[in-house]
Amino acid sequence: MDQHKNDNNSSKKPKFSLSWLYIIIFVVFGYLLLNGDRDSARMKHAGYTEFQSMVRKGYAENVVIFSNDNSLELYLNADSAYYVFGSKFSADQVPVIKVKVGSMESLQDFLDKAQQDGQFNGKIEYKEKEHMFGDLFWSTFPFLLIIVFWIFIMRRMGGGAGGNAGVFSVGKSKAKLFDKGQGEKISFKDVAGQAEAKAEVEEIVEFLKNPKKYTDLGGKIPKGALLVGPPGTGKTLLAKAVAGEANVPFFSMSGSDFVEMFVGVGASRVRDLFHQAKEKSPCIIFIDEIDAVGRARGKNPAMGGNDERENTLNQLLTEMDGFGTNSGVIILAATNRVDILDKALLRAGRFDRQIYLDLPDLNERKEVFGVHLRSLKTDSSLDIDFLARQTPGFSGADIANVCNEAALIAARHNKKAVGKEDFISAVDRIVGGLEKKTKVLTAKEKETIALHEAGHATISWFLEFANPLVKVTIVPRGRALGAAWYLPEERQITTKEQMLDEMCATLGGRAAEELFTGHISTGAMNDLERVTRQAYGMIAYAGMSDRLMNLSYYSSTDEYAFQKPYSDKTAELIDAEAKALIDEQYQRAKALLEEHKEGHHELANVLLEKEVIYAEDVERIFGKRPWASRSEELLS
Q: Facing residues of 486 across strands?
């Protein structure tokens, strides 16, 4: 306990820094500069009138005139010094009076007259006054300035990787060390969902806690695990939870921290990182966004190759191979672009496991909401199941953003707790953008937007595989003038029929404009972009065309292909098939709208009146949806 107190006291002691030495030098130098001519015991300043009086009294021994400074020094004789200073001086101490002169001509006239009258019989000397410390300062200051500037640049180039070592630490690792007992501890309970991924990494934690259990049986623990998944799914958080659960040192850095403008720095930092890790064993090295340094060699889009990046990757591969099998150092890395990583990096013996973190499903979103709602003051009637159903396709980071945005909205309205309406507004804000109440629309534009959005809602209601409707609005948000919100099915695979129904519902807005206004507008631009991309994907990638059945022209391995993997004739065929597919679904959408024209008009009128309608309003007009999906059963 006493040792711990001593350590704390020693850590609070001020640490010596070269900056203090620089400050002391400059203070001393400035003091000498400003006080180099300070009066001593045998020096005294006097006015010109006093000087004239002393000369007339015969006190002057010599006069030294400094023409470049308009000043003079009067050297007193030994007999008169006592009357001026009030003390006696030895023979080697000559008292001096310093005087500022207004006019050198009047001074010369005065001295000439004093000599003629016999009042002054000493020497008159003319000199140039020398400023010793000023000259020294201006002769050395430029060099001092260059040295200080050089030290500053070297420290900046060092990037803080090694404290005061400056340029000599540029090759040191920039990894941030989270040692045992330092900082906030993160455990698996802070990582909601991702049950399969957590099960995978629990074995790593078990090894770090009890390695003998595995080594006694001859087992070899994986050297590395690669966390793969879309952005925001919790890869970095899971890696920190592994370190928190295992209670071991945790080195964290980004892949871009290895690469610098200096040749050889990246490889040097890799060596230094692994050297530190071996000293702290057992420990974890976490490299975030490893694709910054682990991109496949020979696939540089700049057509020249980045030798420094490739040298860094080669050193990383070497260090990962150089470990002993049970050295106690485990490497975790995260990326959302595993397809561009070098194959040598992914082979067994380096990253033995790839742990995939997918977007959370319905139940996992409930868990994520449970974690982020701990710190919020929520209304007692808030339903977490409802929140999870309203956020399909959201990552963990998106859900955290929803919770924070809901709290801000509730605070903006001076509420005491965050309620359901705040979360709905937060989802709308994140998905659709900021509500633009100031955007002015004409009555004709508003009617066109209402018909457009009602077209989407009508067709999606009568298609079996279309996503269930949640609400429709004609309030402008972001760049959109209106929007329809759906609750998509969380499917693992998608059939051709499902894709065709979704395409038909997307074209419902343009079809409604043409049928009921007699003209088309740019409001369907986003819909057409999505439909076109989906049609080409179905034909060229998924092989869902009658004339190009079971053919896929997509390659996930050839990232930088410079030519199409099909002929010009095939390209024309793909274009024709995509157009035919879109035209077929467009005619289908128009037919459905003609069949349910009265209900569509009623829905558009309600939308014009209320601006926002929900699935209940559509059900009241059209009746219960013929096909109830799993999502709709959850909603009910």
A: 469
Angle, vertex CA 362, rays to CA 356 and CA 363, nearest 5 = 85
Give 589-599 pLDDT, tens digit per residue: 999 999 999 99
* Confidence check: pLDDT of 438 > 60: yes
**Phi, psi dihedral angles at 619 (to 5 degrees):** -65, -35
* DSSP, residue by residue, 2-20: HHHHHHHHHHHSPPP-HHH
Residue 3 has pLDDT above 50, yes or no: no
Would strands 60-66 and 43-46 be described as parallel, antiparallel, or unpaired? unpaired
Q: Are 621 and 599 in contact (CB under 8 A)?
A: yes
Residue 512 sits at φ, ψ, to 5 deg, of -65, -40
**Distance between CA atoms of 243 and 329, rounded to whole angstroms?**
12
Q: What per-residue confidence (pLDDT) applies to 634?
A: 44
Q: Are 385 and 378 in contact (CB under 8 A)?
A: no
pLDDT at 40: 54
Summarised one tens digit per residue, pLDDT across range 231-249 is: 888 888 888 888 778 777 8
- The DSSP H or E segment spanning 353 is strand 353-356
What is the layout of strands, in order, in the sheet containing 60-66? 43-46, 96-100, 71-76, 60-66, 123-127
Rounded Cα distance between 240 and 184, Å, is 10
Q: What pLDDT sits at residue 299?
A: 59
Q: How far apart are CA 145 and CA 159, in angstroms?
A: 22
Q: Is the pLDDT of residue 407 over 50?
A: yes
Q: How far apart are CA 420 and CA 417, in angstroms?
A: 10
C-beta of residue 503 within 8 angstroms of C-beta of residue 531: yes
Q: Which of 533, 522, 531, 426 is nearest to 481 (CA)?
A: 522
Classify 401 as helix, strand or coil. helix
Mean pLDDT over residues 432-446, rounded? 75
Assigned token pair, 605: 């009128």
**Phi and psi, residue 356, nearest 5°:** -95, 125
**Dist. CA 69–CA 547, nearest whole Å:** 102
Task: Residue 596: name the closest of 444, 501, 460, 446 by CA.
Answer: 460
In whole angstroms, what is the distance from residue 361 CA to residue 211 CA?
A: 34
Give the mean pLDDT of 174-178: 62
DSSP sequence for 289-339: STHHHHBPTT--TTSS--HHHHHHHHHHHHHHHSS-TTSSEEEEEEES-GG
* Closest residue by Cα to residue 456 from 526, 396, 551: 526
Mean pLDDT score, 205-217: 79
Whether the predicted pLDDT of 160 surpasses 50: no
What amino acid positions are annotated as catalytic residues?
A: 453
> Can you tell me whether residue 469 is helix, strand or coil?
strand
Q: What is the largest CA-CA distance in the chain?
A: 133
Residue 29 confidence class, pLDDT cut points 50, 70, 90: low
> How many other C-beta atoms can be found within 10 angstroms of the C-beta atom of residue 328?
18
Rg for the chain, CA atoms, rounded = 42
Report the mean per-residue pLDDT for the chain: 78
Q: Which residues contact 194 (CB under 8 A, 6 or more apart)?
A: 233, 234, 238, 357, 360, 364
Distance separating alpha carbons of residues 209 and 468, to the nearest angstrom: 48
Least confident of 211-215, 342-346, 383-387, 452-456: 211-215
Contact 593, 458 (CB under 8 A): yes
Write down the pLDDT at residue 201: 83
Contact 190, 239 (CB under 8 A): no
Distance CA 205, CA 222 (A): 12
